[in-house]
Design brief:
The chain is mainly alpha-helical. The protein is built from five helices and two strands; from the N terminus they run E-H-H-H-H-E-H. The protein has helices at about 15-25, 30-35, 40-65, 70-95, 105-115, and strands at about 1-5, 100. A two-stranded antiparallel ribbon has the order 1-2.
């Protein structure tokens, strides 16, 4: 986990910590919005990309699981609860200025965010 003392200024005009938190608010949707809008802050881009990969992936997995009768819906409900806890946790980490990298997803998000202009 990388701690930023003062993340670089966001091109959105928002405090970078607030912009990073907002990347998670509506899951992958706000992640996409901030990834497109942000031009300067690699901190905000990282959180936007991590939001897209994490919550976009969770959404797809839960949709597929809901097709499976009973057990799929049960697993999807459990994933929903875990996803909610993860959502809160990631927003808190972003607002505290921490670049918390999820296993696997964090490394991918970091590489993709660096390439996105």
């Amino acid at each position: 986990m990388q701690q930023f003392n003062q993340p670089e200024q966001s091109s959105t005009g928002l405090d970078p910590k607030v912009a990073a938190l907002l990347c998670y608010v509506l899951g992958f949707i706000t992640g996409i919005i901030f990834l497109v809008l942000e031009k300067n802050s690699r901190y905000v881009k990282f959180h936007a990309m991590q939001s897209i990969i994490t919550f976009g992936g969770l959404t797809v997995v839960m949709m597929v699981l809901n097709i499976i009768p009973f057990i799929g819906s049960l697993i999807s409900a459990l994933l929903g609860i875990l996803g909610f806890a993860l959502w809160i946790f990631l927003m808190l980490q972003a607002y505290q200025g921490k670049q918390f990298k999820l296993p696997y997803v964090g490394d991918i998000a970091e590489k993709q965010a660096a390439q996105f202009k």
